[in-house]
Amino acid sequence: MQRKIVFLINPVSGSGKKDGIEKLIQQKAKAKSIDFEILQTNAAGDYEYLKYKIAKDGITDVVMVGGDGTVNRVVSSLYDTDVNFGIIPMGSGNGLAFGASIPKNPAKALDVIFKGNVGFVDAFTINDHFSCMLSGLGFDAQVAHDFANKASRGLLTYTQQSLVQYFKAHPYQFQIVNDNFSFYTDAFFISIANSNQFGNHFTIAPKADLDDGLLDIVIVQKMHKAKLPFAILQQIRGNNDLQQFVEDMCQKNILYFQASSLTIRNLKLAPFHIDGEPAETKEEFKINLIRRCFKLYMPLPKQETKEKSKSELVEN
Ligand SMILES: Nc1ncnc2c1ncn2[C@@H]1O[C@H](COP(=O)(O)OP(=O)(O)OP(=O)(O)O)[C@@H](O)[C@H]1O
């Protein structure tokens, strides 16, 4: 089937600089004789209008040029259409793109899209919000709220805000409930992760897989603040195994488990974020996985790439 791609460029995501990206898309798409159109994202995050265009013009792919906020808004509007999604990572964090091994270099990310390998990606609802990367409560949500109020975006601003918040950080009280267990915890933050990271390869949920039917839940419990960076470093390095729920959870700094549904009671109204975008907090969050929610262009896994090039050698 002839591909027809709509590119949606976010003019403000990341450092904001998108010089040359339109030209690059034009050159590469024309070289492949692929039909395309370039549009801008909108601040309201409303893409319902694209459904009509997708049906009328036979659009096969929607490619998002931006960060996780852009991906969240576009996919939540359009996942029930037949399009495949692509990402050219140009946000501040790019947690979903990097979790899917999509390269940061725009020309290479475009090559991935044009090569045409798609994989399924799970998503989840958190109350009536849609999330496909990582949502959470507490410290990182406070950073997301502060970041949204800054005039500039990008990694530098994000790192500055994280440092400022680190010194102010304090634990919040939560109750965690699922079919098999219920417990109270005081925690600096809770991450509900579909992708393995916050972004920028900060892999807070190293065992997360975009297509495993499970969400990784990371609960960074109350501890002496001086220990916090070391405990998080252990976690991002993958030194904490996934835990079955055992009685020694009070001995652990970080709880790490997987679930496809969960309820979090937010007893002290910790701040909340959805895929890195600040959102209004609530006393209770009900989380449910949406299995294989959408299809995303991503590189072939390394093993398959090797096998494919071997079979190409044989064919030739
Ligand atoms: N045309 C537009 N004009 C102004 N703002 C826009 C426009 N389109 C989208 N936005 C806003 O851009 C913001 C940031 O988008 P996005 O999340 O993609 O970038 P980021 O925050 O820099 O990256 P990341 O989420 O990966 O950290 C969103 O809050 C969205 O409302």
Automatic annotation (TrEMBL):
It comes from the Bacteria. PROSITE patterns: DAGK (PS50146). Pfam families: DAGK_cat (PF00781), YegS_C (PF19279). GO terms for biological process: phospholipid biosynthetic process. The keyword Transmembrane helix does not apply. Residues 1-129 form the DAGKc domain. GO terms for molecular function: ATP binding; kinase activity; metal ion binding. The keyword Transport does not apply. This is DAGKc domain-containing protein.
